[in-house]
TrEMBL record:
<dbReference type="GO" id="GO:0005886">
    <property type="term" value="C:plasma membrane"/>
</dbReference>
<dbReference type="InterPro" id="IPR004014">
    <property type="entry name" value="ATPase_P-typ_cation-transptr_N"/>
</dbReference>
<dbReference type="InterPro" id="IPR023214">
    <property type="entry name" value="HAD_sf"/>
</dbReference>
<dbReference type="InterPro" id="IPR001757">
    <property type="entry name" value="P_typ_ATPase"/>
</dbReference>
<feature type="transmembrane region" description="Helical">
    <location>
        <begin position="362"/>
        <end position="384"/>
    </location>
</feature>
<keyword id="KW-0472">Membrane</keyword>
<dbReference type="Pfam" id="PF00690">
    <property type="entry name" value="Cation_ATPase_N"/>
</dbReference>
<dbReference type="InterPro" id="IPR059000">
    <property type="entry name" value="ATPase_P-type_domA"/>
</dbReference>
<dbReference type="InterPro" id="IPR023298">
    <property type="entry name" value="ATPase_P-typ_TM_dom_sf"/>
</dbReference>
<dbReference type="InterPro" id="IPR008250">
    <property type="entry name" value="ATPase_P-typ_transduc_dom_A_sf"/>
</dbReference>
<dbReference type="InterPro" id="IPR006068">
    <property type="entry name" value="ATPase_P-typ_cation-transptr_C"/>
</dbReference>
<dbReference type="GO" id="GO:0030007">
    <property type="term" value="P:intracellular potassium ion homeostasis"/>
</dbReference>
<feature type="transmembrane region" description="Helical">
    <location>
        <begin position="1148"/>
        <end position="1170"/>
    </location>
</feature>
<keyword id="KW-0067">ATP-binding</keyword>
<dbReference type="GO" id="GO:0005391">
    <property type="term" value="F:P-type sodium:potassium-exchanging transporter activity"/>
</dbReference>
<feature type="transmembrane region" description="Helical">
    <location>
        <begin position="585"/>
        <end position="611"/>
    </location>
</feature>
<dbReference type="GO" id="GO:1990573">
    <property type="term" value="P:potassium ion import across plasma membrane"/>
</dbReference>
């Protein structure tokens, strides 16, 4: 039924009090003006007569408010309960970080607000982060201010409108008043452009509505200090922000409502700041006259429209009430007309698409890098100086770097798009009484959706019917075990219920593991749990945190800028001191400053990381952004999820302990191929035995246990010919039990096959597992001549199985074919023999009484298995003989009471998600490399600790690694307290998304570079906040992949270790070519400084500098980027995250190399221009030649012109030979830079043939530039004779000797300091 009140608002249904639900609820009342006055004794703060039975506008007759004939106390308690939950949520949100709103928006609240201090004391300790990119919680508490206010609006519309409940609890109203006053003051925007939010506007209207409807709220407003009211109402701001006419009318209405609550003597000026009163006076005067002529003047003007239930979990609502709220027919669903109306209101069920940077923004990011900006500045400087050739060369460098960097990011984005699979594609929905399959995007709240095994939940549902429904919610909670669902309402006094406890809800993108169900859609698209996280991640994606290599290169670039400015200043000062004009020498200084910038640094860094990305892709790691490659190499802590990363992510049977404590282990337990793996007997454990006889490898109890695993089971294992691999169908636990039984040669299909003869075992009844019994049982009929034998098989929680057992199997030999329990896969035993052996073992002579001692022994065995991280199930069976001539048994006669009683205990089976192959070695490699591995999981702490011990994360010999902590304990610690934990835990169990973020931040606070792995949506925020976020490509959600820097295409921890090694290799190579480039460029700087100080002609022209930086820098540096990893790359500790690219030792080495190359080149240059040897031998000049250079150390050019104008043949020749010496020394330096301390003769040349070819290529370019006519003119070079080459060769040999002496000194120093080298930070501080 749809009705409209006098304000034009349309109502779709009427929510009633908890006493019952009306089949045909009356229309909601209209709020009309009062025409009479009450006596002074009855008058409320508004001085308006409110009639006890509200009159409506329908025919002018008085109609009782809905529910008024029912006990008022029930309706009042229900309303107070709902308002109390909303108030608690609102106070929690506003208390978080001093005020703010959810949904990832940044709100502002006045910090010294006394209401805030009062509210902090009243609010609970649970808060919801409101800052940018904050992660929502894993529970129902990740609310935004808007959601809470929508809920309160819904309560007002359906439970309070028309004075249905004029009296509510005063304390509750006090808290509500304070919370709304705070929410009314929420602002957002920058300091200069701060404005009220939409949530502040909603709270403003709600505040007025509660004044109208609840007397106790009026009293609370009257008790509030006018200063607090003035601060919260912000009337001047609401006028300044503009808005439609009705909002200005509402503003004046609010003034009159509030003044009516205050003591006499107040006027509107008390509610407005003194300096704002003049601006507001005109508005108040205008609309006051309008209100005085309006009979409904005390009512807030509200926009019309249909009022629909706000998106919420509604776990506390009964199915009947929920159906009434959404106007959903429980059997026919919504009508087509209802669907259209709701789609127009709620929108489509589509998750927000991940933020994709357009190509132009990617290019812009490349161009705005500091090093690129420096090159652009150099382009401008050379262009101003008239060096157009230099400008062109620099421009080419910038363009190439931009293309490479942008292309790599675009390519990675395309590769990631191929992995996307957002949400469910289809949904089974009941509409107009028929079940139809539709696109999931077309779902609307109120739709009745059906889900069944193997399907993905298409939206957030409130379940109305469940048939053994179990849903895997690992994408949200991290729990790999399916959650049993129940449609019953959960009555709690909070809406902040963890998702794992919302048994009556199903969440979008979770998977149905078992059973089927039906539910009402309550949230779609961005309002779903997965949608909220997607919105937060997309919003925070705009803020990109620079990586360590970017920070270091930025610092290096700043130092280079300082050095360039200093060089320019030195050149100018020296020139002016020698009597030159300021302007030309300043231009010269700018040109020389260009030489400070290593043009090839950015390009080589980009290309090196791009090549590293390709290598990592071949090793199953997809890198989304280039700098993440190097950052991973600096990681000091890896926080890894357990399920699917450290483990296989598939449940398998680890061991079986039969009733007599004989232990059997399963090899290749997760392989679905029956031919792989076997059951291996490990002998008796320390537990007491039922009898004293010896046990063969195959025992009766073990054989019966395997039969139970096979037959008390609904899972299937099959070979998919199309995919060429084995697949499974069913619950993960039952799949594991089926695999275990097949290792012993038992196949359910063979034992129950009906052809070509009657089956050895025929299923008669099944009692499904439920969360109350924690058991499942099946009844089979065994083929037996002359009599009917019923075989009951049961599995479940060990304590529940033992509670219904009276006997246990004796210690006897097994009945399976020999070899079934051997180390190799057995041949399948005959089905008839299996059935006969099963019956024989379960007869009385094959069993013994289950005494308390034997039961206690079984319990002890169960505890020991659980302590090893196994999930334990109990197994039992029994046989019953019935009259063959009697009526056949029915499901009723084979029910729970009969089937699950007087069972025979067979054994215990332990399931575990086994560690991945090679994980132990990978964890050991991390520890050897000084990287600490921390396990973060949603499993129980005992299971997590057992897995951590088995793979080496917890090591007995290192006490600092043996600490484990649960999420509940972590909740009690602040972020600072977590960072101060000593030793820092190696295992975190039962953690929430907030816990993961806290762990990451605590580690970063300790100075670590953190890599965080994740697969589920609940991991996305922590992955985004880590220094390196690593997502799973196979089992990970698309939201997490978008938040990550690196995506593992094989979901293997070993790939992370390989990526760390590749990252270290990349940083080593980056350091090598940075040392190489800076030593070469520093040599040029020192060379220029020598010439400037001595007032000599510059040894090089600007184009020579650029040519040298291109041919002698970029190809050799690229080859250094391809240098193979050093042998000790994963045995040395991580580099200090706080250190820069260059340390003191590397800086000293760099300067030594630069001084040697500069000094040698300068000596050759001086010899060429100042000595007869240089003039005659090197430059082939005759003593009598008219152009012979006049020996002088003073500059001979025109001081009015640029210092580079001296182009006489002798100076051109001297520059050419100096250029040749420095270029060849730089090329040779590439070989010497492959290691700081290892001899070139030990490294050899063949280990990096790329370098040999790149240096040869550069040398060829140098020769062409020197000897090819035209090109050498453009480069201002002249050909060299053979004497010059002898000088070059001598310089190279001298450089090798000098470099080897430096490396020898470093090795000796390192040996002296080796005993004093401390342990890594990760090891020394327990992390």
């Amino acid at each position: 039924m749809v009705s409209t009140d006098q304000h034009g608002r349309t109502y779709t249904e009427q929510d009633v009090n908890p006493s019952g639900i009306s089949d045909a609820p009356p229309p909601p009342p209209s709020v009309g003006p009062a025409s009479t006055e009450r006596s002074d004794a009855e008058a409320g703060p508004l001085g308006v007569q409110w009639e006890k039975d509200v009159k409506t506008a329908h025919g002018g007759e008085a109609v009782l408010a809905p529910g008024s004939s029912l006990p008022v106390i029930d309706g009042k308690e229900s309303v107070e309960f709902q308002i109390g939950m909303y108030v608690g949520d609102l106070l929690d949100i506003l208390a978080s970080h001093g005020g703010g709103g959810g949904g990832g928006r940044r709100y502002h609240v006045v910090r010294n607000n006394p209401l805030l201090r009062h509210m902090r004391g009243a609010a609970s300790s649970t808060t919801v982060a409101a800052s940018e990119g904050a992660a929502p919680s894993d529970g129902g508490g990740d609310f935004s201010v808007a959601e809470v206010l929508d809920g309160l609006q819904y309560v007002v519309d359906y439970r309070l409108k028309g004075r249905q409940q004029p009296h509510l609890d005063g304390g509750l109203m006090r808290r509500l008043c304070d919370a709304l006053l705070l929410a009314m003051g929420l602002t957002q925007g920058s300091f200069l452009n701060r404005r009220l939010t939409e949530d502040a506007r909603s709270a403003f209207f709600l505040f007025a509505l509660f004044i109208e409807e609840v007397d106790e709220f009026q009293l609370c407003v009257g008790e509030t200090a006018t200063a607090d009211l003035r601060r919260a109402l912000r009337l001047h701001r609401r006028v300044a922000d503009g808005g439609p006419e009705e909002e200005r009318l509402a503003l004046v209405t609010m003034i009159r409502l509030v003044l009516a609550c205050l003591a006499p003597g107040h006027d509107w000026r008390d509610l407005v700041d003194e300096h704002e009163q003049r601006a507001l006076a005109a508005t108040v005067d205008k609309y006051s006259r309008i209100i005085e002529d309006d009979a409904a003047s005390y009512h807030m003007p509200l926009p019309g429209g249909v009022v629909y239930p706000p998106p919420a979990l509604y776990f506390d609502r009964t199915v009947e009430k929920l159906a009434a709220m959404f106007s959903t027919d429980a059997s026919r669903g919504l009508t087509s007309a209802q669907v259209d109306e709701r789609r127009a209101f709620y929108g489509c069920n589509v998750l927000p698409r991940p933020v994709r940077r357009p190509w132009w923004r990617i290019v812009w990011a490349q161009l705005t890098d500091l090093m690129i900006l420096m090159l652009c500045a150099a382009i401008v400087a050379t262009a101003v100086d008239g060096e157009w050739k230099s400008s062109v060369v620099l421009g080419v460098v910038v363009v190439l770097n931009t293309i490479v960097g942008a292309w790599q990011e675009i390519k990675a984005g395309k590769a990631l798009s191929a992995l996307e699979n957002l949400g469910s594609t289809t949904a089974q929905v009941v509409r107009d009484g028929a079940v139809v399959s539709i696109d999931a995007a077309d779902l609307v709240p109120g739709d009745l959706v059906e889900v069944s095994e193997g399907e993905s939940v298409p939206a957030d549902l409130r379940l109305t019917f469940c048939a053994q429904l179990e849903i895997v919610e690992s994408v949200l909670t991290g729990e790999s075990v399916a959650v049993a669902k129940d449609p019953k309402a959960i009555k709690v006094r909070t809406r902040q219920l963890p998702l794992g406890d919302c048994k009556g809800n199903a969440f979008m993108s979770t998977m149905v593991a078992h059973g089927r169900g039906r539910g009402i859609v309550i949230r779609i698209g961005p309002k779903t749990e997965i949608g909220k996280i997607s919105v937060a991640i997309n919003r925070s994606a705009a803020t990109v945190r620079p990586t360590p290599i970017q920070k270091k290169l930025t610092r290096l670039g700043l130092w280079l800028v300082v050095l360039a400015v200093a060089l320019c200043a030195v050149i100018v000062i020296c020139g002016v001191s020698w009597g030159r004009k300021f302007v030309p020498i300043f231009i010269t200084g700018i040109s020389l400053a260009v030489s400070v910038i290593p043009e090839g640094l950015v390009a080589v860094t980009t290309v090196t990381m791009a090549l590293g990305v390709r290598r990592m892709a071949r090793r199953n790691a997809l890198v989304r952004t280039l700098p993440a490659v190097e950052t991973l190499g600096g990681v000091t802590v890896i926080c890894s999820d357990k399920t699917g990363t450290l483990t296989e992510g598939k449940m398998g049977v680890g061991e079986l302990v039969d009733a007599n404590a004989v232990v059997f282990e399963f090899t290749r337990s997760t392989s679905r191929d029956p031919s792989e793996g076997a059951v291996v007997c490990r002998g008796a454990s320390n537990a007491p035995r039922a009898t004293s006889g010896s046990s063969a490898c195959g025992t009766a109890a073990a054989d019966v246990s395997l039969v139970v695993c096979s037959l008390c089971n609904n899972a299937e294992i099959f070979f998919d010919a199309a995919a060429g691999q084995w697949g499974s169908l069913g619950d993960a636990t039952e799949v594991a039990l089926t695999i275990a039984s097949q290792k012993a040669g038992l196949a359910k299909a063979d034992l129950t096959a009906a052809s070509p003869q009657p089956p050895p075992l025929r299923l008669l009844a099944e009692n499904a597992f439920d969360s109350d019994r924690k058991r499942m049982s099946v009844v089979y009929e065994a083929s037996s001549p002359g009599r009917r034998c019923l075989v009951t098989l049961a599995k479940g929680a060990p304590e529940e199985i033992l509670s219904v057992c009276t006997r246990q199997l004796a210690d006897a030999g097994g009945f399976l074919r020999p070899g079934a329990m051997a180390d190799s896969p057995p041949a399948a035993p005959a089905p008839d023999a299996v059935a006969a052996g099963l019956v024989s073992c379960l007869e009385d002579r094959g069993t013994v009484a289950l005494t308390p001692g034997l039961a206690a022994s079984a319990g002890d065995a169960c505890e020991m298995m659980a302590a090893r991280g196994l999930r334990v199930l109990g197994l039992a069976a029994k046989i019953t003989y019935v009259d063959a001539d009697g009526p056949p048994p029915t499901e009723d006669s084979l029910g729970l009471a009969w089937a699950e009683s007087e069972l025979v205990f067979a054994g215990l089976v332990g399931l575990i998600d086994p560690p991945r192959s090679g994980i132990v070695d990978s964890v050991l490699r991390c520890h050897t490399a000084g990287i600490n591995v921390i396990m973060i999981t949603g499993d129980h702490i005992a299971t997590a600790t057992a897995i951590a011990e088995s793979i080496g994360i917890i090591r007995p010999e290192l006490p600092d690694t043996q600490r484990a902590i649960s999420g509940a304990e972590l909740d009690l610690l602040s972020e600072d307290a977590t960072a101060m934990l000593s030793p820092f835990p190696s295992v975190f169990a039962r953690v929430s998304p907030e816990n993961k973020i806290k762990i990451v931040r605590a580690l970063q606070q300790r100075g670590h570079v953190v890599a965080m792995t994740g697969d589920g949506v609940n991991d996305a925020a922590a992955v985004k906040g880590a220094d390196v976020g690593v997502a799973m490509g196979l089992g990970g959600t698309d939201i997490t992949k978008q938040a990550a820097d690196i995506v593992l295409t094989d979901d293997n921890f070993t790939t992370i270790v390989a990526a760390v090694e590749e990252g270290r290799r990349i940083f080593d190579n980056i350091l090598k070519f940075i040392l190489y480039l800076l030593s070469c460029n520093s040599a040029e700087i020192i060379l220029f400084l020598f010439a400037a100080v001595l007032n000599l002609d510059l040894p090089f022209t600007t184009i020579m500098i650029l040519w040298a930086n291109i041919i002698a820098d970029i190809p050799p540096a690229l080859s250094l980027g391809l240098d193979p990893p050093e042998r000790n790359i994963m045995t040395r500790p991580p580099r200090n995250p706080k250190s820069g690219v260059l340390t003191k030792s590397t800086t000293v080495i760099l300067l030594l190399q630069a001084f040697f190359m500069a000094t040698t080149t300068f000596a050759v240059f001086l010899a060429a221009v100042l000595t007869p040897f240089g003039n005659i031998v090197l430059l082939h000049r005759n003593r009598s030649s008219p152009d012979t250079y006049v020996p002088s150390i003073f500059h001979q050019g025109n001081p009015e012109l640029n210092a580079n104008e001296n182009q006489s043949p002798h100076i051109a020749g001297a520059r050419s030979i100096a250029f040749a010496v420095l270029t060849v020394l730089q090329l040779n330096q590439a070989f010497l830079s492959r290691s700081l301390d290892i001899s070139l003769f030990r490294i050899g040349l063949r280990s990096n043939m790329w370098m040999v070819w790149c240096v040869l290529f550069s040398f060829v370019l140098f020769v062409l530039g020197t000897y090819v006519p035209g090109l050498n003119d453009w480069l201002e070079l002249v050909p060299l004779g053979w004497p010059a080459w002898l000088v070059i060769l001598a310089a190279v040999l001298l450089q090798i000797v000098f470099s080897e002496l430096v490396k020898l000194t470093l090795r000796k120093r390192a040996r002296k300091l080796a005993p004093a080298v401390p342990t890594t930070q990760a090891q020394s501080d327990g992390c």
